[in-house]
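If you are new to this repository, start here. Below is one unmodified record pulled from the training split, so you can see the exact layout before writing a loader.
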Amino acid sequence: MNQTQVSTTAEVRNPPRTCFLDFEKPLFDLEAQITDLQRQQEIKSIDYSYHIQQLRLTLLKMTNEIYQNLSAWDTVQVARHPRRPLLGDYIDLIVNDFRQLHGDRRFGDDPAIITGLGRIGRDKIMLIGHNKGKNLKEKTACNFGCANPEGYSKALQKMKLAEKFHLPIVCLIDTPGAYPGIGAEERGQAHTIALNLMEMSRLHVPTIGVVIGEGGSGGALGIGVTDRLAMLQYSYFSVISPEGCAAILWKNADQAPLAAEALKLTSKDLLQLGVIDAIIPEPLGGAHRNSYGAIRSVEEYLCQTLRAMKRGKIESLRENRYQKIRRIGQLQIRPKTP
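And here is the target side for that same chain:
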């Protein structure tokens, strides 16, 4: 895809720039001033280039300061931003010759999880990812990225296919959680996800997971038991959403910001805890300000990781994966100070 196609894709898939978060209001005001000066420069034929340059420098400095000091709740908001690149954008830009595979051969084809064959760089891969949809019709069809049991069984079936043909598996995670509807529970939502956890831990091919937005609850874990797990800088990964946690602990979803801090769900926290293996940096101001840059960063990480994992021994994959999982959540007892 050439640069023109990339720009067109970004414009079509992203809402207008009026979408901004509360803490981004100062940035939006500065951007509006710059746009206004540029318009006045064209209309009045007056050179405002110096003033525009100064405002851009101020905007750059302010963006850097804001995003260096995001709270956990701010990070959750960035991960949910409507302009943030979705699975379809990643497929369009970094997966060559993508061929989608449908259905779980038991119940149906869940649009909330997309699976298919393709190439990233020089490597043939099996891609599995959460699909949130681009517009209201698509979002409704795929439950805003919340998959049903048939979605997770489809994912597992395609993982087994990849194992048969010795293909590495790449999972792009972006979901608030698994779909909690009555039909999903009747068809064994919890059992299906648990089966995926067990089977993914036994696969004989390299597996890589990247949280590109939201990583919520069992819905994320259903395709998240991988040899390498990375997160985009402003994504989150948690056992429960902050709102759900607040509703349980405080009986009040308004306490979500407090719950977000307690959950330690940011990429920085999870790297320190050993839950993830790497943080993929986002462009200044987040992926929603530069989708192309964020997607290319993910591509670079995937290419490097695939190349490194190909040099390892297949026989040791499962043991290394098991030991990695066992290390998560280890309790370290510090000696009492006198």
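Two things worth knowing about this chain: The beta strands are 96-101, 113-120, 123-130, 169-175, 207-216, 228-232, 236-238, 278-280. Residues 25-44 form the longest helix (20 residues).
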